[in-house]
Design goal:
Neuraminidase, five-stranded antiparallel beta sheet, four-stranded antiparallel beta sheet, 1 helix, 19 strands, 3% helix, globular
């Protein structure tokens, strides 16, 4: 099958770096508020309802995923909004809010944990930072409490850096994210080091927009359609849609 890549955005300002441009997509934590909210608009309601959500005792709460049952996942920080944890005393945690009850999500032994998406089958995908400073993707099965660490084969890091605050998970359990193939340069301005990937039924597939300097995958639906962002040779950032 051929992959079809469709540009969703074009011609961001030439002076915008990849880091800044990805943050314009809302990926960077710098663009987030200190509390998240839930929005409900039932058909019978005359006005929408907003509910502020703060993890108890947190100074920063970020909600990024919800399933059809209304279960919410996100991240929170205990001391400040340091997104990588450890450097100034803060430690980031993921969380699940289900049935009005909060539950912290911490990958065992990790310095920092993000929760990204939750599907209708009780699976949560996110990332964590290990003690050596490397990032990894994880899959958590709520019913058993079992964590699975996920690294793209041969990658130096998976879901690395402050430009990877999001990944994809569908109801089939397929995961979309990114990895670095360089041992020396995994920065946002690297050329040829950043690649998207899909993990489906235990099989990894790398994703590279033709001609792109770097590719990052942010979401995947049940049909296997993937969305994300890529940088061209001038480090301009574009969105993409990949259909199987």
């Amino acid at each position: 099958m051929n992959n079809e890549f469709d540009e969703l955005t074009k011609n961001l300002a030439q002076s915008v770096t990849r880091r800044a441009a990805l943050k314009k997509f809302g990926v960077g934590l710098a663009s987030l508020t200190l509390a998240c909210f839930a929005f409900a608009n039932p058909a019978h309601a005359s006005t929408p309802n907003f509910t502020t959500i703060d993890y108890p005792g947190a100074v920063f709460t970020d909600c990024v995923g919800i399933n059809r049952f209304g279960d919410i996942v996100g991240s929170y920080y205990e001391n400040n909004s340091d997104s990588t944890g450890g450097s100034n005393g803060s430690q980031g945690h993921g969380f699940l809010l289900s049935g009005g009850v909060y539950r912290a999500i911490d990958f065992p032994g990790a310095d920092y944990t993000d929760a990204w998406r939750i599907n209708d089958n009780g699976q949560i995908v996110g990332r964590y930072k290990s003690g050596n400073g490397a990032f990894h993707v994880f899959l958590l099965t709520i019913a058993s409490g079992a964590f699975t660490s996920i690294d793209y084969p041969g990658a130096t890091q998976t879901a690395m850096g402050d430009f990877t605050q999001m990944g994809g998970l569908n109801n089939n359990g397929d995961i979309a994210s990114d990895f670095c193939s360089s041992s020396s340069n995994c920065e946002v301005a690297s050329f040829g080091s950043l690649h998207g990937f899909v993990l489906r039924a235990g099989t990894f597939t790398s994703l590279d927009v033709p001609g792109a300097a770097g590719t990052v995958a942010f979401g995947i639906n049940e049909r296997g359609v993937v969305v994300g962002g890529y940088t061209d040779g001038h480090l301009r950032v574009h969105g993409f849609l990949r259909t199987p």
